[in-house]
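Page 42, continued from yesterday. The earlier attempt failed because a stray header line got pasted into the input along with the sequence. Redoing it now with the clean sequence only.
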Amino acid sequence: MTSSSVQPTPQNRQVSQINWVNLGFFAAVHLLALLAPWFFSWSALGVAIFLHWLFGSIGICLAYHRMLTHRSFQVPKWFEYILTTIGAMALEGGPIFWVSGHRLHHAHTEDEDKDPYSSRRGFWWSHFLWLIYPREEFFNIEAYQRYAPDLARDPYYRWLDKYFVFLQIPLGVALYFLGGWPFVIYGMFVRTVVLWHSTWFINSATHMFGYRNFDSEDNSRNLWWAAILAYGEGWHNNHHTFPNMAKAGLRWYEFDPTYWVIKALQIVGLARKVVNPPAQALKQLQS
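This time it went through. Structure tokens are written below.
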């Protein structure tokens, strides 16, 4: 679609105003990540890869997405708080914000007015422009918390939703003392930018490119390279067809390392009530 796809329509004129604070924040983080060549070291790159996995696979994919949004499995409350805090470290928003937006995405998938990041408004809209042209009901906690009332009732999640950004301060200090500015540049900014786009590709690319195992009512698709970047979340057609299952990859070659962690937690007794793929889904894939 052309750039006109981000202009207001009769249904959503309120999204026409650009949020300069949001734009400035995202631009600043991207620009700081461009310092990477001048601060390169193999250890710094290793830190970025490790934190991309920790905050991405464990924090976003496992905690925010499969545990909190879809309740695909349960863990003890103390451990749920730890996992959710790791998710907040990803700098993708607080848990109430993230969960409410994703539940709306599933309730109104690709609806241009009700889905916060509808792919029908164009690749770039679903990828990140929805963050630059924010709508009140998706970004104001008094409005969006109604879509995640289970989290909004929890005082810790309300605190985390408000102050998650400040978790980057102790992280940055720790990285500086461990490895100086290379660890800060790679562990904070390079990691953040790569993880943002890894997540955003699930909103954009997997609703446009790839194959389909199931005839879901939306245009969700399975995209192998998005599954690699997002630790199994790229098997999006599988997920949209059966959103509450803990396992996203259903065929033998559908790489899903986030599920491997869930399975390991189940084996050691930390995860319970793990929602398995429906028998009819597996049977359909074998036919």
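Notes: The first helix runs from residue 20 to 33.
Reminder to self: strip header lines before submitting.
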